[in-house]
Design goal:
By secondary structure, the chain is an alpha/beta fold. The protein folds into two domains: about 15-85 and about 345-450, Aspartate Aminotransferase, domain 1; about 85-340, Type I PLP-dependent aspartate aminotransferase-like (Major domain) (Aspartate Aminotransferase, domain 2, 3-Layer(aba) Sandwich), CATH 3.40.640.10. It has helices at about 15-20, 30-40, 85-95, 110-120, 135-150, 165-170, 175-180, 210-220, 245-255, 325-340, 345-365, 395-405, 430-450; strands at about 55-60, 60-65, 70, 125-130, 155-160, 190, 225-230, 260-265, 285-290, 300-305, 370-375, 380-385, 410, 415, 420. Helix 3 (about 85-95) runs antiparallel to helix 10.
Length: about 450
Amino acid sequence: MKDSFHRTEGDINLSDSRKAWYAVISDSSTQHYLDADARYFLHQSMSTPCLDVLESCDGIYIKDLAGKRYMDFHGNNVHQVGYRNPYVIDEVKKQMDILPFSPRRYTNKPAVELAEKLAGLFPGDLNRVLFAPGGTSAIGMALKLARVVTGRHKVISLWDSFHGASLDAIAAGGEQVFRKGMGPLMPGVERIPPPTTYRGIFGDDGNDIKYAEYLEYIIEKEGEIGAFIAETVRNTDVQLPSKVYWKKVREICTRHEVLLILDEIPIAFGRTGKMFAFEHYDIEPDIVCVGKGLGAGIMPIAAMIARDAYNIAADVSLGHYTHEKSPLGCVAAKAMLEYIEEHNILQKVNEDAVFMETTLNNMKEKFSLIGDVRGIGLLWGIELVKDRGTKAKAIEESEFVLYECLRNGLSFKISQGNVLQLSPPLIITREQLQHALQIVENAIAKASAIVK
Ligand SMILES: Cc1ncc(COP(=O)(O)O)c(C=O)c1O
């Protein structure tokens, strides 16, 4: 296996394990489309070659051309209410026959209704909304708005953070691999170490209060800082800062009049057991970006939600997107939110979380390959290590587990090379969850036997 690969956001699709995977999905039709995909798309990191060719999806499943079904525990974080959720599909179909597109300069009922609905879900005066066609674009709007509100252009972010792949988002983000070789980027970004030490939200804060103090240090030393941007809970390798950390960050931002921008693009709408992850921390951000699951796995739509007092940029184009008020996106989003509320999804997720915690901790007892399990709601990470003392990453073993699970009908993503990230649709039944975790356990057992 080539070790020049950067293992950050996702699993590596050029590794030897990936090459071996293609023997499993070798039918001629699949091969044809994989080859054609590789022929006609511009290749880019982590996209080409693809894992498989999909034909359909339903509930927690994606299905390939040969009829193989995978439980999707990744879903790019769009599948909170499951694939092709019938209620959402119905609402979108109805809208399709009425007003599928709304030109900018006009508004429409679904857009206004969604804006009002979102404003009602956020606390305090977080009730001003702008929509965008994707999360990255919502981040771009938030960065612009922070400049307008504070008159300061500098931003602090976390090392290794991801906020999208556009030039402004990679400039603000912390993952070096996205910036590498890209030339000059947006100036004025300072990065501080991320609070990766897991002690649990309500537990001992460990050392992460120190991480919050870096923020104040840079604000004071650097000057001209307008905003601090971070994921409330890091999605990819599942890092949960303590409540002490976020309370301290909030206090520092308030004291220095630095806007707190929370990126909840992958984790809002029930993933953590609350509608928004910041609710776990009793803090109120100044701007929040959401996306992905907002479109219910059907329409691309994201949103920035900001304080009422920030409605001062009437002469600035913050977004100016063609799909600024997409009626289809807005109908899908409103239906997704209604579905979550009407089916008590948050309560279900919290019950599932207890089951996940117990099952994964039992797994950890059995296999020394598991260095750590951590999570909240239906967002869990299993960190595989060669040695619990040194925490050396078990990279080959993680890839082995991934492909073994794929073989057995479970799809997920590896983060940082050794964190199996499990984020199933929130509508998953307990039986399906049990089945999926059994697949994971069997694969880890096999990987452990091989390592010995
Ligand atoms: C934390 C975070 N922010 C921003 C984005 C960008 O969202 P999008 O791909 O919809 O532009 C992502 C996407 O993976 C993300 O995980």
